[in-house]
Amino acid sequence: MGGWPRIAGLRVVMSWPDSEFAPQPPPRGRGRVRLAGLAGGSLVFGGVVAILVALLAQQHAPSPAESAAGRVGPDGAKGPALHQSPPVSVSIPAIGVTSKLLHLGLNKDGSIQVPNLMTSANEAAWYKYSATPGQIGTSVIEGHVDSYAGPAVFYRLGALRPGNRINVTRADGITAVFRVTGVREYRKDKYPADTIYAPANFAALRLITCGGGYDAVTGHYLGAVVVYASLVSSSHT
Is 122 within a domain? Predict the structure, then answer.
């Protein structure tokens, strides 16, 4: 698949290559998933005005520190778990993120759907074929790092550190509280899909956005930022 162009030096969210970045396929009958990364469709640019806006707004998203690599799961006990209930919103106080959660599945071509870059760059999305946040298993939430107009919802994802909290409010009125255990940046040629999307025996959460350098020749990001977290508590709203 083609990647997103760079507008006046601004990094625009890429399309992942095919199957090497695919999560575990959904239940039989829903087709095979190819992770389309954090972009979908094509951008329509508003000519010179949009280019000037992008030029003025361009910034560099923070990359995870080596000291933030941490662990991909909890240390020791599995921890608490919740019954199934779809998520409504997510908040990450340490980086100032508050967003309602879209529920997205698959495109007709089998790629994973992502928020519309023109209308929903500031909204995160839960992959609806993953576990619901708080369930035993792996729940996946994705978001854009930037758009042609500037930083997007997960622009500061790489600034998170182990110990930071992620709060996911669910349709049943319960807020699932996750603790970050690790934050890592991967090059696309070393993307550990089996680790990121594999079923877990605890209530796991993965937050994903594009990251690393930007290759203007290919129009692709060179990697991804992945936040690993596990459920530590819950409360009723």
Answer: yes
